[in-house]
Design a protein that fits this description.
It is built from 3 helices and 16 strands. By secondary structure, the protein is mainly β.
Length: about 375
Amino acid sequence: MVHRGPFFDGHTMIRMLFPLGLATATFVVPQLAYADNWQLHYAINSQSFSDSASIHDLAKDWRNEPTPSGSIAYSRNRVTLGARRENVSVDLIYRQDWIFEFHPDTAQIVYRDKNKIPLEPGQDYRVKLRARALGAEGIRLGFESDANEGWGLRGAVSLLQVSEFQEGRLTGRVAENADGHFEGLGQIDYRYDEDHFLSHLASPPDGYGFAVDIGIFWSNEQYYASLDIEDAWTRFEWEDAPYTRGQIDTDQSSFDPDGYVSYRPLLSGVRGTEYYRPTNFLPRATTGQLGMRLEQWDVSINTFHFLGTLWPEAQLTYATQGRMHYSAAYEAKSDRITLGIASQTSTHSFQFQLGMDNERWQEAHALLINLSGAWQF
């Protein structure tokens, strides 16, 4: 008879851990000369990364075993549509963020639970998960200064209404008892618009907030550099945020038709609603670039810093005698290769990038999609 010992239902944990779709890195819309003209622009930016298992596995079937050291997964999405005149821009924005930090044992438990593989006898498993998620839409007000002797500043404030959020910590252990069965015990501190963990029935709260982005840039005829911080400061609040706090264990269990033990977590704690206003609910995302122009070639070093990890990237861009630009980039941390194509005239621009660390998208641990364009009139 097969026994399993996680103190959570595997399917609900999977939904909580990795509802990853395509997702965003900070990406600059192709720029036109602004002058006094109006510019309409759009952008769809998407970036996902996991160092535990492929994005497809985490979101779907967990068919491949997670890496023994993986501990983060994130998915960042942005869709914007807006207009700009001179130094000021106004955008409609939708954003979705999923951010997970976890102990490798936690991913191993979920993988074995999903595939009905028993836990290793005699081994203790550590459960540690921090989950943050946000879905919001609103207005983004931006400003970019004129370059003064090559230097310039830019910034934006997003005023957001929150449609979905998750924020919680789960800690504990799963260990084998004297009878050879696994038992779990842990602590949970969890806030949400919908309880994906213990199915607490509560009304979704109304949430509001704002996020501040800042940046600095410099260029001359041959060299250029920039540094941008997305979510440099954020503030959100919910009047009646549902929460669950307390201790959970595996006192309740049942058997499926195949004799597999399914543990139903039992909560000893409190549930309710509360006023919740976290500062810097989302981690900062920092993007840097240092580049050099060489006739028809452009060489740059790009960096992305997030969750305490730095992703360095080298990029090479070739401009034809016409309006086309072709680019190739290699990101060393995840082995992601990104290919891009762009066109630009005096009145419109277009750019598309696709990046993966594996030619089979089902096996990719890193996925990047950027699509943007602008019209000037």
